[in-house]
């Protein structure tokens, strides 16, 4: 019951920043965990970052630690990903996702998915 729509993707130069947003049409409750995944051409979809809805827990892939920040806005019912110091290897389609399975990062445990937004980082 959580339709998701991503926005904010685009083309940036290496070292630049982008902020992605994910809007949920229904209110997200405190038992949900929200996450960002990404998929580059020819690669499997991989975990990027996750946050529980109270905002008391976060998890990041090693490849983005210190550069990306995940956050949520309960009032606006949105999920965000602030991406700084972008690298060409960050180029991918980014997806937001939601799960009621607890503090998990496994792709297969996420029940709801957005359509994705393209992020391209030029060298």
Report on the architecture of this protein.
- This protein has 123 residues and is an all-beta fold.
- It has strands at residues 4-7, 10-13, 18-24, 33-39, 46-52, 58-60, 68-73, 78-83, 92-99, 112-113, 117-122.
- Strands 2, 4, 5, 6, 9, 10 and 11 form a seven-stranded mixed beta sheet that branches. A four-stranded antiparallel beta sheet has the order 1-3-8-7, with no helix packed on it.
- A hairpin with a 5-residue loop joins strand 5 (46-52) and strand 6 (58-60).
- The chain starts with a strand and ends with a strand.
Overall pLDDT metric: 94
Biggest beta-sheet profile: 7 strands, mixed
SS elements, strand count: 11
Poorly predicted runs are: none
Pairing-aware structural class of the strands and helices?
A: mainly beta
Radius of gyration: 13 Å
Q: What overall form do the CA principal axes indicate?
A: globular
Strand content: over 45%
Distance between the termini: 40 Å
What's the helix count?
0
Which helices and strands, and how do they pair?
Elements: E1 4-7, E2 10-13, E3 18-24, E4 33-39, E5 46-52, E6 58-60, E7 68-73, E8 78-83, E9 92-99, E10 112-113, E11 117-122
Parallel strand pairs: 2-11
Antiparallel strand pairs: 1-3, 3-8, 4-5, 4-9, 5-6, 7-8, 9-10, 9-11
Brief synopsis:
By secondary structure, the protein is an all-beta fold. The chain is built from no helices and eleven strands.
């Amino acid at each position: 019951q959580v339709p998701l729509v991503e926005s904010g993707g685009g083309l940036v130069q290496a070292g630049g920043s982008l902020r992605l947003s994910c809007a949920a049409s229904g209110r997200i409750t405190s038992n949900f965990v929200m996450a960002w995944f990404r998929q580059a051409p020819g690669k499997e979809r991989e975990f990027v970052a996750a946050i529980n809805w109270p905002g008391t827990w976060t998890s990041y892939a090693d490849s983005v630690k210190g550069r990306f920040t995940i956050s949520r806005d309960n009032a606006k019912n949105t999920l965000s990903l602030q991406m700084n110091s972008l690298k060409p290897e960050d180029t991918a389609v980014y997806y937001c996702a939601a799960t009621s399975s607890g503090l998990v990062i496994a792709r297969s445990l996420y029940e709801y998915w957005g359509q994705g937004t393209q992020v391209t980082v030029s060298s």
